[in-house]
Amino acid sequence: MVKVRKRGAVYGVIGLMLCVAVYLNWSYVKTPDDLVVAGQVEDELAQAADAAAEAEAGNAAATASDYFAQSRLSREQARDEAISILKETVESATADDGAKEAASAKISVLAENSVTEARVESLIKAKGYAEAVVLIGDDSLSVIVQPPTGGFAASDAATIKDIIVTETAFAADQIKIVEAG
């Protein structure tokens, strides 16, 4: 009985750490100004100056591209951090076998999610959308899409949801589509 409680507590802690990593990733992705606070002052100041110059020149596409690239980078950094924590559990001499198995399973899920995100992003781009970032959570999937030149329509959302439902195990009500803007 004690082992079951310990195992449940370990699973809970691992899940909580993963949720915190995903939340931090999501909160840092919202604006480039937030990334300055995270210690990337010099790079972000240079990027902000470049973005301002591009905006003045009317080159909004490059700024949008930077947003999507930064989103992918932040997503990968959060995932790498979570995997690092899980690997420590797997390699720990003090962790019990159940915790090690749970950590290994979670690492596999994260790797699988990474492949699925890349595949769905590629399919969305293949349908004619310039950029997309997919974020898979435990029970939901979010997509940030650069809107087409004519604007984002209901048919666009249907097309994207169709791709996601076909390629993943998520139902339509678990999918959130956000227009980058």
CA distance, first residue to last residue: 52 Å
> Which word captures the global form?
elongated
Low-confidence residue ranges: 30-42
Strand order of the largest sheet: 1-2-3
Strand content: 5-15%
Your description of this structure?
The chain has a 3-stranded mixed β-sheet, sandwiched between helices. α4 runs antiparallel to α5. 70% of the residues lie in helices and 8% in strands. A hairpin with a 4-residue loop joins β1 and β2 (141-145). The protein is built from 6 helices and 3 strands. It is mostly helical. It is elongated and about 60 Å long. The termini are far apart. Residues 30-42 have low confidence and may be disordered. The longest helix is centred in the middle third of the chain and has 32 residues, at 60-91.
What's the helix and strand layout?
Blueprint: H1 2-29, H2 32-37, H3 41-57, H4 60-91, H5 97-126, E1 132-136, E2 141-145, H6 154-167, E3 175-179
Parallel strand pairs: 2-3
Antiparallel strand pairs: 1-2
Helix pairs in contact: 1-4, 1-5, 4-5, 5-6
Report a brief summary of the structure.
This protein is mainly alpha-helical and 181 residues long. Helix content is 70%, strand content 8%. It has 6 helices and 3 strands; from the N terminus they run αααααββαβ.
